[in-house]
Write a structure and sequence with these properties.
Layout lengths: L9 E3 L7 E6 L8 E7 L2 E7 L12 H5 L14 E3 L5 E3 L2 H19 L4 E5 L5 H15 L4 E3 L1 H4 L1 H11 L8 H6 L2 E5 L3 H4 L1 H14 L3 E5 L5 H4 L3 E3 L6 H15 L4 H7 E2 L1 H8 L4 H8 L3 H13 L3 E5 L1 H4 L4 H14 L9 E4 L6 H7 L14 H11 L14 H9 L5 E5 L3 H4 L3 H9 L2 E6 L11 E4 L8 E4 L4 E5 L12 H12 L15 H12 L11 H6 L3 E2 L41 H7 L5 E2 L18 E6 L15 H6 L5 E4 H7 L6 E6 L2 E10 L6 E5 L31 E7 L1 E5 L6 H8 L3 H7 L13 E5 L18
Parallel strand pairs: 7-8, 7-15, 9-10, 9-13, 10-11, 12-21, 13-14, 15-16, 16-17, 22-26, 23-25
Antiparallel strand pairs: 1-4, 2-3, 3-4, 5-6, 5-17, 18-19, 19-20, 22-27, 23-26, 24-25, 24-27, 28-29
The structure holds ligand MGD (2 copies), iron/sulfur cluster (SF4) and molybdenum atom.
One ligand MGD binds next to helix 4, helix 20, strand 16 and strand 22.
């Protein structure tokens, strides 16, 4: 059973009732909560949850409730800008900006060939934008350099699904979470990153004590605090954990032999690849006690239903795709997929990153078509009415590949839409140098850190000011209606792309304009035709239905279909070569396989049990950098804070960067709460206050990545490593080696010094000085002794957060 009852959360600042409430969807995270936008005098004045929406039954989280304040921010971009000869960004007209882009694009195509223009887009736009990017990019410009911040986010979702099931699309849905006996959150902290989803889990758990909750996370997160079984493994040891546990289950667990025989291939190879993994070996590499591993193997090996979610602790970690494939293997050998309450639920993060993968705005062609399969390219050419030979083919190019191509001067235009790579890319110093060397377009509602490398800035309309659809983490397509017109002079991403296509005069085979639609709805209708017969078939969806029925899960093959809450109920997978979205990759090296290789696997509709070879983390703590660094999120902020930093409440709740350190480590190092310390890695360093606690294990520190101001030394990505997973090419944000150093001065105590006077001299409080030196009473200081004075102390607290409100 889902939510026990609806509860309408709302946050409205309006004198008198709003003039209207407009149907929409929260544009923050991948949970995809239904909402209504309050409009008064043509301004957005608030938001409330949609009580009829099955995902949230009216609930909203703190970011959901406060997102609309960014629309009102006084510093929104109101006109395009062009960098002049003096290096200054100056206001320009749309015509000037777009003509410059057209000129640069043509120059680049002429000089460097079509594959020299790169779109780097987002997981926060609309399906219609992504489909248009795919068509403009591939059939218009004929470039294969299409990627998005989804590479940093959910590339591993896609690749682990491709490896095991042949196509993207997560098997289980939130409905299965409502039914399952056991829920395993694997590297996923929804209490802070999917608050309404976590409330939904806890709403049921409080009433029925189900599901049994397992949380696999090196930190004791707010989610882990609610777990029946918390697995605080060492950073980077997901695969040793899974290989050990799975091998144990193969020996002693309840296998579904009939399922394995009828619906999978590759059992022997998979088994062989983990044959040496004893629980003892797993215990050694994960740092976990043997009893914990036995307990985990027992629960996972015997439960009658199981949903496993994976997120960044899996995707941005060592052996990312392989560990997620191991999760798929677990579900397959137990036959726990395609059945009520069972299946992997490989999550998304951003509100529509899944839509970008579905619509073909990143690596693969629209509607899960394989860019290395001539059959699929031919279909695409027919659908777009273009010459098949003009469509770029081959494996995808990821952002880190594109950065390398920029460094080799092979990219003439880099078009950045709805993402802020100067804060979000790993090893940002390298990325900055690369982007400074090419022509960069930044399309964003605000001036961001990435504007510093922009040659042209295009101001984009925000959520609430445009119409379109998004796909959430469980394949639900939701609609967002336009609540208000954007401020004058601002265009939506969709309109900007259409304008570009028109100015470039892209044509189809018959000499007609390549893009013939002019509204998001007409674009969606075209995408429906493109999706027909594919795994994500949306033929039965209309904008009207999406609003009336509060979202629909694909596939929706016709108007009589109510959508598909669970994939693979017939145990038929997308693994016949001409159905599959991929010919898959070698599980160890990531080398793309050929059609012949894939045909040889002989899956033909059966799921593939892939081998799961282990590779130790590339960078591990060492003498110079003895500490593990991990990075991630706080409940109060959204990524690079361009929206949440503009909401007074969210800004006040967490105002600056910090590093969280275990209290044992701070005691050893003599670091006081709030004391500014230096964290350095082989790539760079930051100086941020220490937060002392027990949530991180000793030997590990956590830095939130939300704070990336170029003028401050607090960006997590000054430290992270630009190493990617060989299959998904997703960066390894969750593990690097670092060191923490005190940045202290010494003070020789002289006659007349008091704690107060010394502290005042250095601009800190006497209390901070006392704590930094473990002084119990003010009388302990004597002349001649040397006191350690923290460089500074910043003690702005982070607002505590209660993970679910039913508790109150
Ligand atoms: N408040 C908030 N919510 C968000 C976002 C946001 O910015 N702010 N962003 C959204 C987006 S785009 C995404 S992708 C999601 C991300 O959502 P999550 O994945 O839930 O969030 P993270 O904090 O990135 O990472 C999750 C956990 O991985 C753990 N971890 C680190 N190393 C390992 C490891 O080796 N193994 C395991 N098992 N775990 C490890 C970390 O301790 C962390 O608690 O959140 C979405 N929701
Ligand atoms: N160290 C570390 N780094 C990470 C991660 C981590 O866990 N640790 N997580 C990674 C993950 S999972 C993600 S998803 C990325 C996120 O990283 P980014 O995508 O770079 O972060 P955002 O702040 O979400 O950037 C979105 C941008 O789009 C703009 N925007 C908002 N609405 C619109 C719109 O409608 N149109 C346009 N054109 N622009 C709009 C915003 O103002 C903002 O500048 O960060 C990644 N980087
Ligand atoms: S859980 Fe996600 S989608 Fe729902 S209100 Fe919060 S941020 Fe928005
Ligand atoms: Mo993400």
């Amino acid at each position: 059973m889902s939510w026990q009852e609806e509860r309408i959360d709302q946050n409205v600042y309006s004198q008198g009732d709003p003039d209207k409430w407009v149907y929409s969807t929260c544009n923050i995270c991948s949970v995809g909560c239904g909402c209504y936008v309050a409009v008064k005098d043509d301004q957005i004045v608030g938001i409330k949850g949609n009580g009829d929406h099955p995902t949230n039954r009216g609930r909203l989280g703190p970011k959901g409730e406060n997102q609309w304040q960014a629309n009102q921010a006084p510093d929104r971009l109101m006109s395009p800008m062009i960098r002049n000869q003096d290096g200054q960004l100056v206001k320009a007209s749309w015509d000037e900006a777009m003509e410059l882009i057209v000129k640069k694009s043509k120059e680049s195509m002429e000089k460097l060939g079509p594959n020299s223009i790169s779109f780097y887009s987002t997981g926060q736009g609309f399906l219609e934008d992504y489909y248009t990017t795919a068509k403009v990019g591939r059939a218009g410009l004929r470039t294969h350099l299409l990627d998005a911040n989804t590479r940093l986010c959910t590339a591993t979702t896609e690749f682990c699904l491709l490896q095991s099931f042949g196509a993207d699309g997560t098997p289980a849905s939130f409905d299965d979470v409502d039914e399952t006996d056991v829920l395993m959150l694997f590297g996923h902290n929804p209490a802070e990153t999917g608050t309404v989803f976590f409330e939904r889990v806890m709403d049921r758990k409080q009433r029925t004590s189900k599901p049994y909750l397992i949380v696999v996370d090196p930190r004791e997160t707010l989610s882990a605090k609610e777990a029946d079984l918390h697995i605080p493994l060492k950073p980077g040891s997901n695969l040793p954990l899974l290989n050990g546990v799975l091998n144990e289950i193969l020996q002693n667990g309840k296998l579904d032999q009939a399922f394995i025989d009828s619906h999978t291939v590759g059992f022997d190879k998979m088994k062989e690849s983990i044959g040496d993994w004893t629980l003892e070996h797993a215990a050694e590499l994960t740092g976990l006690p043997l009893e914990k591993l036995r307990k985990l193997a027992d629960v996972l090996g015997t439960c009658d239903s199981l949903v496993t979610t994976t997120l960044q602790g899996a995707y941005q970690s060592s052996n990312a795709t392989t560990a997620c494939v191991a999760v798929n293997n677990l579900h397959l050998v137990r036959g726990l997929i395609g059945k009520p309450g069972s299946g992997p639920l490989h999550m998304a993060g951003q509100p529509s990153s899944s839509a970008n993968r579905t619509a073909g705005g990143v690596g693969t062609y629209p509607a899960h078509r394989n860019p290395t399969n001539p059959v699929h390219l031919k279909e695409m050419a027919e659908l777009w009415n273009v010459d098949e030979s003009t469509l770029p083919a081959g494996p995808e190019k990821a952002i880190e590949d594109i950065i390398s191509l920029i460094e080799k001067e092979k990219v003439g235009v880099f078009w950045n839409i709805g993402t802020n790579p100067m804060v979000s890319l790993p090893n940002r110093e390298r990325a900055r140098k690369a982007l400074e060397s090419t022509f960069v377009i930044v399309q964003d509602p605000f001036l961001t850190e990435t504007s510093s490398v922009a040659d042209v800035i295009l101001p984009a309309a925000l959520w609430g000011e445009k119409e379109g659809t998004m796909e959430n983490a469980d394949r639900t397509i939701n609609i967002l209606r336009k609540a208000i017109e954007p401020p004058e002079g601002i265009k939506s991403d969709f309109e900007i792309l259409l304008d570009f296509a028109k100015r470039m005069d892209f044509r189809d085979r018959d000499g007609q304009p390549l893009i013939q639609y002019s509204t998001p709805e007409a674009c969606f209708e075209e995408f429906k035709r493109v999706s027909k017969g594919r795994p994500c078939d949306m033929s039965g969806i209309t904008y009207e239905r999406l609003e009336k029925e509060n979202g629909l899960r694909w596939p929706v093959p016709d108007e009589n279909s109510n959508g598909t809450p669970r994939l693979y109920t017939d145990f038929k997978f997308h693994t016949t070569p001409d159905d599959a979205q991929t010919f898959s990759k070698d599980q160890l090296t990531g080398r793309a396989l050929s059609k012949e290789d894939y045909t040889e696997i002989g899956a033909n509709g059966r799921a593939i049990l892939q081998p799961t070879p282990y590779v130790p983390p590339y960078e591990q703590p060492n003498d110079e950098y003895p500490t593990w660094l991990t990075t991630g999120r706080l409940v109060w902020h959204w990524h690079t804070r361009t929206k949440t930093g503009r909401s007074p409440l969210l800004h006040m709740a967490a105002q600056h960067g910090y590093v969280e350190i275990n209290e044992k480590d701070t005691a050893d190092m003599g670091i006081a709460e709030g004391e500014v310390v230096r964290v350095s890695s082989p790539r760079g360093e930051i100086e941020v206050p220490a937060r002392v606690g027990t949530a991180v294990q000793p030997g590990l520190v956590f830095v939130p990545f939300h704070f990336g101001n170029l003028d401050k030394k607090e960006a997590a990505n000054a430290l992270t490593i630009d190493l990617v997973d060989p299959l998904s090419k997703q960066p390894l944000f969750k593990q690097a080696a670092c060191r923490v150093d005190k940045i202290r001065k010494n003070h020789e105590v002289k006659e007349g010094d008091t704690l107060e006077s010394i502290a005042a001299n250095y601009g800190i409080t006497a209390e901070d000085l006392r704590r930094a030196n473990h002084i119990e009473t003010p009388y302990e200081i004597q002349m001649g002794i040397s006191l350690e004075v923290p460089a500074s102390v910043i003690n702005t607290p982070i607002q505590p957060y209660l993970p679910y409100r039913n508790k109150m």
